[in-house]
Amino acid sequence: MQTIGLKRIMAGLAVAVAFAFLIWFAWPQPVAVDMAEIVRGPMEVTVEDTGRTRVRHVYTVSAPIAGKVLRTPRYVGDEVAADETIVAAMQPMAPAFLDARTRDELQAALVAAEAAIELAEHEIHRIEAAHDFAQNELRRAEELARRGVISAKTLDKARFDAETGNAALSSAKAQLDVRRSERTSVMVRLGDPLAVAASDDSDWRIELRAPVSGRVLRIVQESEAVVQAGTPLIEIGDPADLEVVADLLSTDAVQIEPGAAVRIDGWGGTPVRGRVARIDPAGFTKISTLGIEEQRVRTVIDFVDPPEAWSRLGHDFHVVVHVTAWSAEEAVTVPVAALFRKGDNWAVYAVRDGRARLTPVDIGRRNNRVAEVRSGLEAGDRVVLHPSDRVEEGTAVAERVIR
């Protein structure tokens, strides 16, 4: 009997253990989730975008006239002194080649010039003969006048003829010089352009000097070439006088004001501080890398930190700017990873007594990490991050342990 009783006790105990195991196995286990704590502290909302540095005042040296610019003696980075350093030199350019019609016209003009010279020479011979005759007549009239044979009027007429002939001879010689100059002009225009260029005096040139002291930032025209008036040749500026230019989205630009604090990083060095100096009043259309038209607003940022902090930056360097649009010293914040939409409102799963509780929240400002909580949560509360579809109202949750 004792043996039978013992067996019954052992069987009952085994059934109880099995039943307890089945209950434990069927009992729902807490869902492992990531959690975060609601905190109170400083918060800021920033507008982030890429930008570039630029020298505040860039001076472009351009060709004052059309001509041949020589190879520049300067290199990028060279120091230049105002009104002293030669940054470019120019010489007259070679004449252009003549087309067939122009050449025929000039050859005809050359024949006409030769004929005009011959005509002028014959005219000089005629005037010289008349001048010699007038001089002889004047000498005879003067002799006869001493004898009293002719009147004073006749003597004056002889003198007038002699002076008129002398003037006509001088005029004819001047006319001959004009015709010869016209022939020379036509012959030069008919000359070989390459031969004319080779015969130019190499010392006949103009030198362009630096308008300000600084460094060469960019050489637009490095090699020798023929340029037109106004062609940019070289850019000069002071690399220590830098500013940052960022083309912000117009929807972001309206959130910031001049004087807003800026954090500048993404340039390869430690972050530096800046300040918004100017926001342009007009926007412009820019095509994004995805081919989307965007309205952008140019924003100029000054450096606040001393030059030693950003001395390795130069002209047209890439940077990332974080412009402060709003900030608060004491704000209750919740990670944006805990937020989700519930109808038209925001909500979170707050963890209370080991269970997830659906909690509506009123959200204010937010950035890419946290959001300002106006109501619904308090500092010290814990919320579920990235809640999955396994988390519902009342679900038992436990914080995931990362091993």
How many structural domains does the protein architecture include? 4
From the 3D structure, determine the CATH topology of the largest domain.
Elongation Factor Tu (Ef-tu), domain 3
How many strand units? 21
CATH superfamily of the largest domain: Efflux pump adaptor protein, beta barrel domain
CATH class of the largest domain: Mainly Beta
- The CATH level-2 architecture of the largest domain is identified as Beta Barrel
Secondary-structure element string: HEEEEEEHHHEEEEEHEEEEEEEEEE
Total of helices: 5
Structural class: alpha+beta
As laid out across the biggest beta sheet, the strand order is: 2-11-14-13-12-15
User: Which strand-content bin applies to the residues?
Assistant: 35-45%
How far is the N terminus from the C terminus?
55 Å
- Fraction of residues in helices? 25-40%
Radius of gyration: 49 Å
What's the shape? Answer: rod-shaped
Give start-end ranges of low-pLDDT stretches: none
Largest sheet: 6 strands, antiparallel, barrel
Mean pLDDT: 87
Walk me through the structure.
With 403 residues, this protein is α+β, with helices and mostly antiparallel strands. The protein has helices spanning 2-26, 100-147, 152-189, 193-198, 250-253, and strands spanning 31-37, 39-55, 59-62, 67-69, 79-80, 86-91, 206-209, 214-219, 225-227, 232-237, 242-249, 261-265, 272-287, 293-303, 318-335, 340-342, 345-352, 355-366, 370-375, 382-385, 397-399. It folds into four domains: 31-43 and 330-399, conserved putative lor/sdh protein from methanococcus maripaludis s2 fold (Beta Barrel); 47-55 and 239-328, Efflux pump adaptor protein, beta barrel domain (Elongation Factor Tu (Ef-tu), domain 3); 59-94 and 205-237, OB fold (Dihydrolipoamide Acetyltransferase, E2P) (Beta Barrel), CATH 2.40.50; 100-198. The chain is built from five helices and 21 strands. A six-stranded antiparallel barrel has the order 2-11-14-13-12-15. The two termini are 55 Å apart. The relative contact order is 0.19.
